[in-house]
Automatic annotation (TrEMBL):
<dbReference type="Pfam" id="PF05099">
    <property type="entry name" value="TerB"/>
</dbReference>
<dbReference type="InterPro" id="IPR029024">
    <property type="entry name" value="TerB-like"/>
</dbReference>
<protein>
    <recommendedName>
        <fullName>Co-chaperone DjlA N-terminal domain-containing protein</fullName>
    </recommendedName>
</protein>
<feature type="domain" description="Co-chaperone DjlA N-terminal">
    <location>
        <begin position="87"/>
        <end position="211"/>
    </location>
</feature>
<dbReference type="InterPro" id="IPR007791">
    <property type="entry name" value="DjlA_N"/>
</dbReference>
Amino acid sequence: MGVSRILGTRTAWTTVGDGEFFCPGCGGDRNYQRLTGRRRFTCLGVPVMPRGETGPVVECAACGHHYSADVLDHPTTTRFSAMLRDAVHTVALAVLAAGGTCARTSLETAAGAVRSAGFDDCTEEQLAALVEALAADTGRIFGEPCGPGLSIELHEALDPLAPHLAPAGREAILLQGARIALADGPYTPAEREALTTVGAALTICTDDVTRLLTAARTPS
């Protein structure tokens, strides 16, 4: 009988948590168990000597595969959709507030972008009311540069999302904001500043932000 069949190791797993995660093996949201384990040497299949601890690992309840704990850093599909929806909504409000006039064309473009992101019942009137409330709450005047409060809101909405977006996805959000700004005419200085803040929060380099904002002005 071979040595490998006589001696071996066995891991006894203990569940220390559970929840829902995005399983890279299944390619979708699944339930998981978070496990820690104790390894033991075995002789003829019988545990005989402790060999230390292992884990923690994340076990998918569907496929049974084990993953390192950092897999939980990836948002679930449901969470990712909510983050994307909130990000587009925040960018739209920031650009509209920077634009100053809340022209009908800008509101229509913004509402279309927000609805496409998941706020199905968003209307132009709702966005206009939110922009007015935002200005009243912060004491801003329409058309002013992006103040610290609005800049913080953009970073809070975009910073957690950016690492989970491909470059094309980050650029798409910036271009949506650019189209809202351009719907009623050329960029104002305040709109350009707001869009630059959006680009920075999305970790798009300054040169690429300039390139994208210029490209958005060119009819396709």
